[in-house]
Amino acid sequence: MSSRFQLAENRYGKTRVRLVKVTRHAHGNDMFEWNVRVLLRGDFETAHTEGDNSKILATDTMKNTVYYIAGRSKATSMEGYAKELIDFLLSRNPQVSSVEVHIESVLWKRLTVDGKPHPDSFMRGSDEHQTTTVERAQNGEFAVTSGLADLVIMKTANSAFTGYIKESLTSLKETTDRLFATSLSASWSYMSDDFNFNAERTKLREAMLKTFAGHTSLSVQQTLYAMAESALEAVPSVSEIELTMPNKHCILIDLARFGQENPNEIFVPTDEPSGFIQATVKRTA
Ligand SMILES: O=c1[nH]c(=O)c2[nH]c(=O)[nH]c2[nH]1
C-alpha cells in the first residue's frame, strides 16, 4: 500500500541522566556532577511505521551505558568522556548512524574549613553550568561544541546606551551611566577534537570575563562582540563562538518623590521582560 506520508528526521535517546562521580585519592577526593543526554540517529524507520523494535537499543540500556562508561573512563574532561561513550555505542550498534552526547556540568566547589580547602567536602557554587555537545557518525570525525550557561555578571560602571531610534513609542531615556547585568551563555566549536578541553575552556571564560569587566560599553551588542573577539583571540582552536546575553535591566528608582536624591545608587533589578541579545562571531576566511 503506498502511503501519503513518510518518516523524516528522527532521533531518540535518554535525557537528564544524572551522574555524580567521585575519584578517590590517598589524601582526598575529587568529584563532579553531570547531567547527560544521549541521542541516536539511524535505521529506525520500521520502528516508527511498523512497531518493529528489533533495531531499537532501549533508552534504559543507554542510561546504563552512561554509568558503565563513566565507571571505567579515565577521561579528564566532559568532552573526552563523551567521545568514549560515542565510540562505545557506535561500535556495538551498526544500525546507529550517529550519536550525539550533550553534557551539562553543575558547579561544585571544594569547601573551605578554617581557611583551608577540605579534602572531601564540597558546596554547590553558582547557577553557572559548563556544557558540551559531541557528535560523530559511523566512520566520521568528532564534532565538538562546548560552552557555558547561566554565568550571571554585572558591570556597575562604564556602560552607556544612547543614540538609538527615537520615535513615537520610545520612552527609554538615554544614559551614559547605567548598570549592565546579564546571564552569559556561550557556545564555541572546536576545529579539531583532541585538545586539553579544560584548559581551553578556562582560557575562553577568562578572556570573556576580562573583556566584560574592562570594556567601555556603548551597548550590550558592542560588549558581546568585544567579548567574542577576545575569546577567539585567546583560543585559536575555536572556529566560532555564539554568545547570548540577556539584558537584565536594573531600573533607577525615583526618590525625588520623597524629597531625596538618587545619584545612581538605588535600583530595582527586574527579571522580566529582559532584552535578548545574541550573536555568533567567526573568523574571516
Ligand atoms: O545595550 C542595549 N541594547 C539594546 O538594544 C537596548 N534596547 C534597550 O531598550 N536597552 C538596550 N540596551
Automatic annotation (TrEMBL):
For this UniProt record, give its keywords in alphabetical order, as a comma-separated list.
Answer: Oxidoreductase, Purine metabolism
| Binding residues annotated for O2, in chain numbering | N247
Q: Which reaction does it catalyse?
A: urate + O2 + H2O = 5-hydroxyisourate + H2O2
Please report the name of this protein according to its UniProt entry. Answer: Uricase
EC number(s) from the headed UniProt entry: 1.7.3.3
> Where, in this chain's numbering, is urate bound?
T59, D60, F161, R178, V220, Q221, N247
Name the lineage. Answer: Bacteria, Pseudomonadati, Acidobacteriota, Terriglobia, Terriglobales
Q: Which residues bind 5-hydroxyisourate?
A: D60, F161, R178, V220, Q221, N247
Has UniProt tagged this entry with the keyword Oxidoreductase?
yes
